[in-house]
């Protein structure tokens, strides 16, 4: 006999079958696939749509929490567009950026989000938020008012 319930207790093989069912229901595969669903945002102006996948950093989560946003995009240098979210992003646990073409980054000293359409050298104050998924060729064409929204 197992447990303290006498005749009504599960036999070892019955317990094992019940336990297997729980393991299948709460399997690592099920929970991991839910956790790893990519978080995507889109940047839109007129007919142009650029889609980014965000990383799991605190700064990316902070940006996502502010959506939807409608704001002005600005040219900066010869390789990037920038915009200023209403609230600064928390850079704790946010990786430094390589600032490659298609990178979505955050420049902490100015509290601006950077959309790279060209290469840029690494900077100790530049953090990566995500990478472009589609529309990379249109980043350079962004101008004026943009809308940044979550994609479900």
Automatic annotation (TrEMBL):
Domain spans labelled Cyclophilin-like: 45-149
Domain of life: Bacteria
InterPro entries xrefs: Cyclophilin-like (IPR041183), Cyclophilin-like_dom_sf (IPR029000)
Pfam families: Cyclophil_like2
Region Disordered, residue ranges: 1-38
Bias-annotated ranges (Basic and acidic residues): 17-38
Protein name, as recorded: Cyclophilin-like domain-containing protein
């Amino acid at each position: 006999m197992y447990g303290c319930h006498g005749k009504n207790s599960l036999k070892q093989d019955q317990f094992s079958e019940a336990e297997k069912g729980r393991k299948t229901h709460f399997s690592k595969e099920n929970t991991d696939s839910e956790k790893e669903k990519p978080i995507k945002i889109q940047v839109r102006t007129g007919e142009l749509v650029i889609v980014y996948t965000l990383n799991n950093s605190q700064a990316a989560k902070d940006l996502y929490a502010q959506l939807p946003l409608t704001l002005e995009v600005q040219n900066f240098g010869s390789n990037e567009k920038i915009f200023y979210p209403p609230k600064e992003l928390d850079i704790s646990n946010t990786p430094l950026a390589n600032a490659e073409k298609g990178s979505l980054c955050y420049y902490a000293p100015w509290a601006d989000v950077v959309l790279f359409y060209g290469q840029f050298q690494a900077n100790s104050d530049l953090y990566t938020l995500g990478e472009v998924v589609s529309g990379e060729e249109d980043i350079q064409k962004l101008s004026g008012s943009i809308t940044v929204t979550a994609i479900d």
